[in-house]
Structure prediction request, 464 residues.
Amino acid sequence: MIYPTRRGFLAGGAAALATLSAGRTAFGAPATNVLRAAPASLQIAPSDYPETAVWAYNESAPGPELRITQGEMFRARLENALPTQGTTIHWHGVRLPNEMDGVPNVTQPPVMPGESFEYSFTPPDAGTFWYHPHQHSTEQISRGLSGVLIVEEPEPPQVDADLTLVLDDWRMTEDAQIHESFGNRHDLSHAGRLGNYVTVNGQFQWSRGVRAGDRLRLRLVNTATARIFNMRAEGLRLWVAALDGMPLAQLTEVTELTLAPAQRIDVVADVTAEPDSEALLASVERDGNFLLASFPTDSQPAQAARDRPAPFPPNEHPEPDPSEARKVALVMEGGAMRGLPDGATLNGQKMDMRALVDENQFWAFNGIAGMSEAPLIEARVGETIRIAIENRTAFPHAQHLHGYHFRLLAPDGTPGAWRDTVLVNPDETREIAFVAQTPGSWMFHCHMLSHQMAGMMTWIRVTA
Ligand code: C2O
Ligand code: CU
Prediction:
């Protein structure tokens, strides 16, 4: 039964690829929340390839899945056992005190090799979050440093299985080693460091047994530094329940999912595949569907009829009123094809395009490349900010705001979903609105991390 299904759904080439490799996975996280960043050797490629030399948290890529319950204090000690570089951990999407945000030289000094740092905070929101370094982040994340942080609802929605799927994209050499082409000018100025090998939970074509009729909660997390995943499923009925950790008021049934770098989607997935067959999740590529994960079904089905899934319990956020908000324009420019014909300001100095390229800078926000002394926005606690993010480049960008979730606004200004990372396609403008809450210096940057490196970053200062 397996092959006819796959042949219909997947491209021929993808179906013929090698069998599952038995990589080490994220499961079995230590209870102590020590995250030791160190070199490790892991079976990331299929088993007929050698192990890959990576940098990993606790010898696992992705790192350990950390779970706490909403309202609980979270603690983690980062130990840097990397050979050369300083590092930090940013808790992506978590509302926390600024000094816990993990941005080197902004919220804390980098943690140098041999040093450690204690993070502690109480996440107010339940949902799916992730953690990653914010120092040399293109290189450190591409080498394997990232993991998932789950804040459980005190009464989690009823499902038969709660499964995390970490989607990652590796750029490997032919002998399955990390390609050391970090920050080359082509990646910096085009679509970023796209890989040639995709994994789910650190494995090629990850698989998990289910029963026909099961209701699953799938937590999809994109930890890739550049790849946008477009996905389709077979044998699964999908409802989007939360975006970037924030529950939607209404569940929406979908047939396709888009996940930009750093974004998360929680879906409720009912297994509609027959007993003794399988459900599939695939990435939609130009030359066909590529298998990401399979869910072989048991010969015994689960219960039959089910109600429509209910929305997850909401998280409490101060509600922005877009009509009262201070409006800010944010124009993205640069990159291959369109460039920066008028140059940009770097470290307070106006430069032409050639001088910027010499500094490996290709992108600008409002004519400024990289971090500037003055923030993009100075806001007071309680103030509502509305940003129109305009993409004048030839590439899509996933823009992330630290510290806050924002409401995505519809073209007529109606508030839509809460997110912390928004994908803005070429020649598109997306508006966001949020109420400034916690004081501090909060980064705003492209999560195509080669773009961040090459100029696409700024910050917001919030004062009491
Ligand atoms: Cu997930 Cu500033 O990053
Ligand atoms: Cu970008």
In short: The radius of gyration is 22 Å.
